[in-house]
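Homework help board

Subject: predicted structure for assignment chain

Our instructor gave us this sequence and asked us to write out the predicted structure in token form, then describe one feature. I got the tokens but I'm not sure how to describe them. Can anyone check?
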Amino acid sequence: MKKHLLILGNVQGVGFRNWLYTKAVGKNIYGWVRNKSTGEVEALLIGKDKDVQNIIKQCKSGPILSSVKKVVIKDYQGEYNSKSFNIINTS
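My token output:
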């Protein structure tokens, strides 16, 4: 399963990227997470259906200091060949 997420709310400056990195690595999820210059957090999650769905559910709450308002979820059709999860530069 490949899902692209856009997480809206108070999600920058609260440890969201590191929190998601820890969750993803713990579930053998590949992909990336980054801050967007517009204030959202964007992520790509690739893995087993059950594990990706579990991470998406957790993203709707986020880390303790965050305040998630909405998670926009889309299927991802592109290629991603890395077998790791990375925190990448702000877009």
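Reply (TA_rk): Your tokens look well-formed. For the description, you could write something like this. The CA atoms of residues 31 and 85 lie 5 Å apart. That's the kind of observation they're looking for.
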